[in-house]
Amino acid sequence: MDRNEVLLVGRLSAEPEDHTLPSGDTATKWRIIVRRHRRQRRGATLTDSVPCVTFSPETADVVRGLKPRDYLQVIGSFRCRVFGPAGAKTWKYEVEVTSAKPVDTVVVAEDPPDGGGDGVGEEVQGTVTPLVPRRVLQLARAS
User: Fold this and answer.
1) pTM (2 decimals)?
2) Which domain of life does the UniProt lineage start with (predicted)?
3) pLDDT above 60 for 76
């Protein structure tokens, strides 16, 4: 059975743009920045900028309500669109989004803002950096 479902969680790269099509419909386009798992150099953070489009006014309103660098979740389908004359075709890949929603993020403080406590497990309000899993380089031996 074929299945074409995409779920992305990342940051809005810039303000979305509306494009009016010849049919009168509006296509709202934006890019979502998604971090890759580290497989390259140490300390390097690699990202993908994934083009997204929606034809749904409700979904477009949600995305328009966000600011660049805000986190969001999108659900849709992967699409390949072909443009241009027969001798000079251009292939474009994008996610056709059917729903989008903002994502709340919580951060565990490394250094508590008040200078007290050990900082482990304390939530910091008003911060928009999400928790990032850290790789365990080696495990401690059990005694």
Assistant:
1) 0.68
2) Bacteria
3) yes
